[in-house]
Design a protein that fits this description.
Length: about 350
Amino acid sequence: MKALVLAGGSGTRLRPITHTSAKQLVPVANKPVLFYGLEAIAAAGIKDVGIVVGDTSREISDAVGDGSEFGLDVTYIPQSAPLGLAHAVLVSRDYLGDDDFAMYLGDNFVVGGIDRPIREFRAHRPDAHLLLTHVSDPRAFGVAELDASGRVRGLEEKPAHPKSDLALVGVYLFSSAIHEAVRAVKPSWRGELEITHAVQWLIDEGRDVRSSQITGYWKDTGNVTDMLEVNRLVLETIEPHCDGLVENSEIIGRVRIEEGAVVRNSRVVGPVVIGAGTVVADSYVGPFTSIAEECLVEDSELEFSIVLRGASITGVRRIEASLIGRHVQVTPAPPVPHAHRLVLGDHSRAQISS
């Protein structure tokens, strides 16, 4: 069995971060989201992985390499434009051959791995196996409708009136039957070849399409709110560890301080990760914050945020729920005179707090 990891796409919901960085490489607890998926694939016993790449192919290949760091054998598959998930399968036909494969969206985060659904797929060998989860607003997702036996009856992409609250998780398991399906479907109104249409084609053709509901946590990390939530979740699992230097500071709870980092005259309340070579001085760093490598946080307060490599935050009071990009500089605004500008008519009365 192979894996097909989708790492193209422009990441418009994470702009401006993704103007200069692949969305799959934005870090969660100082590790790129993509790496969690590759680790889950390796843990499930899959070795051969094709990574579909687009405009950020160089950045993805520089980060992942040949895959040996993850115990994988990685092949890169170029996609000329982000023309849909089914199009990614279409351009990967030569690599996949007639092998079964797991398709994993590289910006998705699945707690608990994919071992169990892969075991189910191998045991029953359906034409497709979908992972589903209950969501509060299914209108934002691909939605599955199940019959009484639990098999998939139909799929809808972002329906206005969903028939269920079961959303498709960004992991799909396929036999080689999917190749006929992706060739048969036409582009949607978005101009994309939708994987939901391809799976619906399998259903309409009487093929065996099954599903299982994940019991763990799943997020599509496509926007800042979801990135911060996944960061919070991962930080909940870290163990306290210090390879750096702590001077005259209070460290409370689960705090991981990487090699070469310095915490001086500060208060850090975990869970927090402070990256290698980062300096935190005269500051407060609060829960659910990850600070990447070579950053500076000085005379500032920071909480529930992600700070990327090389950023500096100096003299700023209270930053929270923020995603701060690489080599960003955050400083106080210059002082300006306070004044009131008024245009008052005859016989007016004005009250001004001074």
